[in-house]
Amino acid sequence: MTYLAYTSSLLALVVAAQSATAQAKQRQSDQDRPPAASPAPVEAISPAASASRTATSVDEIVVTATRRSERLQDVPLSITAFSQEELTQKGIVSYEGIARETPGVVLDTRSDNNVSITTRGISTNGYQAGLQSTTTVYLDELPLTTIGNSVTLDPNLYDVERVEFLRGPQGTLFGSGSLSGALRILTKSPELDHFDMSALADIGLTPDGGGVRQRYNAMVNVPLVEDTLGVRAVGFFRHEEGYVDNVGLGIKNSNTLKDWGGRVIALWKPSDRLGVRLMALYEDSFPEDASLVTPSLGDRKRYSTIPDHYTSKTQLYNGTLDYDFDFAHLTSSTSYGYQDGLFEVDLSGTFALALPFYLFDHGTWKTFVQETRLVSDPGGTFDWTVGGYYLRRDQFLEGRQTSTPEYLAAHGITGLPADATFNQFGSDTSSYELAGFGELTYHLSDTLSVTGGLRYGKYGATVDTHAGFNSLYFAYALGGISGPLALTPNAASTTEYPSAEKASWKASLTYKPSPDLTAYVTVSTGYRTPVYNARAGSVSTVDPNDLVIPEGAGSDNLTNYEIGLKGRFFDGLLTANLAAYYIDWRNIQVQANRQSDSIQFATNIGGAVSKGLEAEIVLAPARGLSLGLNGSLNDAQVTDLTESEAAISGAVDGARLASPRLQGSFYGTYSYDLPGGATGFSSFQVQHVGSFPNGFPNTPGDPTTPNPLIDDSDAYTNINLQTGVRIGRMRTTFYVENVTNSRAVTYVHPEAFTYSRYSILRPRTFGVRVGFDL
């Protein structure tokens, strides 16, 4: 499909929709049904968007999940939203806190910047190595996630407008990576009518063998020309001493994090119709070691002979133009992201520490995204959204696998370079996605609406493989062979994968008997783009008769059937959002490993089903008191598998996917007056996550042998407490995290590469947060 075809289709839809909207406005006044919020231009959403709870009722929340500003209660989707106030009060600074507070979501953490998010059970092993993530993370309009085992920035969450977690496939509006959900981090725009400034310092101490955690944040908002031009700048610095000791390196608290950066946003509004927003962001995140441990070594101990690094230096630039026509709101967003990351890992666990084996990868990712959309004004018989999307991502990878000069000398192995590199490789991968999308809602009556959405995309990729070399290092080392190693050159090559086209769609029926009650039924689909194996065609140097790496994995497909109910009751004292879903996942992309040398590759297997229930309930039973409960029940398992698919993946019929059956949190806040005009609050969060397996039960490539790497995470309950006081513009909060000092295993790495494979909760941490708002 050409650019011309997309453009012609979009223009035709715009013209038709404009005509329909104009006619509808003549037939129906805005009072015929409860009005939705006006589409949000580039300035911040009104204070009604706050997810904090008032003293006497539960505040309404405004979200932009449908690309227009709407009350959360009116959107026929499963969405959890967080305001900055709620993030700060609960001490949520990263994906981890968001996952624990969102039903149906788990976070699998190997290290800062090396995480995967699983939504509604749609994950086979929680690692997603070599595969496009099933849940896309957006920072404003730019997707941060690519493949599950790449370095993914965990961005700073200070002074954000809002965080939205959309569950279920979001492919119609958010593209191919949102197979099971989308996490949106929306930054705050400048205020144009007043000067503002804030700061927050957070000092925590982990006395049970951990270190000191320091977090500093500051914001300044300056209206350069009142009501016309303003700038908002945010800076942050984190130095968080770790809690894991690396016995191989002799380093205490080796998983220390150093993270700093900032962003600047400018907003120009020369008229009520036009807004131009520019943003520049930089974040340098450097975890000094991974957080995975080996329980058999002792409490909070890990082993490696080099630090495992997953570092990220990220730049993000965005320009957004908003214009209000008489009938619709136009948004054009242009984003460019540049990420430079290290992926350096001790892989000696592959051979049970029998020989040194290290991976040193350096990668850069350049991502360009252009999205243009037109969203109708609310109030007519029809609401519509139409747009076009283009993404281009260029990934550069240069890697080498090494031994050590000492090991080579001791075993009489010669012929390798001075740095003991036995395998050198690299590639440039250029991929693109071009799509047109649209949604149309027809209000059949004041209470009944039907919505249809379609996204049609075209994608393709070219992989340029760099010249490199390989050797028989493993054969020599494992076989006790000494002597010179020959370097076998790998010639440079170019592979252009044929472009493909794919559609995702959704249909929804919404019933609103009153402004405070919404019921909906939705069917939606999603997919991931194909995965191209960088080492396609390679033959094992350990066992030449082993599997030749295939070309890649094709798209998988997912259909989500969902029924939901959202309501506000008793004059806003109670809100409840309930959803039930059934997901059919076909042609699943999975990560497999060649047995002889553990090289990863992507392929496809049959199908799985995920079904579950989700609930979010918030109650304000008395003045100053609010209580909340969210939870999910999920059953996700393989349901369709051939013998050959079982052999290559290790899966079996009925095998569970990597998701807990039960997950939820119970939380509450009590606000009260103190002498001298001060106010106080006390709050708690009790978070429970059930256990889940880290992969399929059998050994890939050897289905008769149980996989020795399979293990379950722990079922655990984590308790956090906070109490604080606000005096004037100063707010002080004292907190305790992990009150019971649990060492629960939250994730088990599914591969033998690393000797340390278990992630645990951070031990009990005491701290104080001091914030100032001008």
Helices and strands in order, then pairings?
Elements: H1 3-27, E1 62-63, E2 70-71, E3 78-82, H2 84-90, H3 95-100, E4 105-111, E5 114-119, E6 135-139, E7 142-143, E8 160-167, H4 171-174, E9 181-187, E10 196-205, E11 212-225, E12 229-240, E13 245-246, E14 257-268, E15 274-287, E16 301-302, E17 309-324, E18 328-346, E19 358-376, E20 382-402, H5 405-410, E21 413-414, E22 421-443, E23 448-465, E24 468-470, H6 473-479, E25 483-484, E26 488-490, E27 493-514, E28 517-527, E29 531-532, E30 552-553, E31 557-569, E32 574-593, E33 600-622, E34 625-640, H7 643-649, E35 662-673, E36 679-689, E37 698-699, E38 702-706, E39 716-727, E40 730-737, E41 745-748, E42 758-760, E43 765-773
Parallel strand pairs: 6-9, 13-16, 21-25
Antiparallel strand pairs: 1-2, 3-8, 4-5, 6-7, 8-9, 10-11, 10-43, 11-12, 12-14, 14-15, 15-17, 17-18, 18-19, 19-20, 20-22, 22-23, 23-27, 24-26, 27-28, 28-31, 29-30, 31-32, 32-33, 33-34, 34-35, 35-36, 36-39, 37-38, 39-40, 40-43, 41-42
* Helix content bin: under 10%
Query: What is the count of DSSP helices, taking H or I runs of 4+ residues?
Result: 7
Sum up the overall morphology in one term: globular
Work out the strand percent. Answer: over 45%
Annotated CATH topology: Maltoporin, Chain A
Low-pLDDT stretches are 1-55
CATH fourth-tier homologous superfamily: TonB-dependent receptor, beta-barrel domain
| C-alpha end-to-end distance | 53 Å
What is the residue-mean pLDDT, rounded to a whole number? 87
What's the CATH C level? Mainly Beta
SS class: mainly beta
Main sheet attributes: strand count, strand direction, barrel closure: 22 strands, antiparallel, barrel
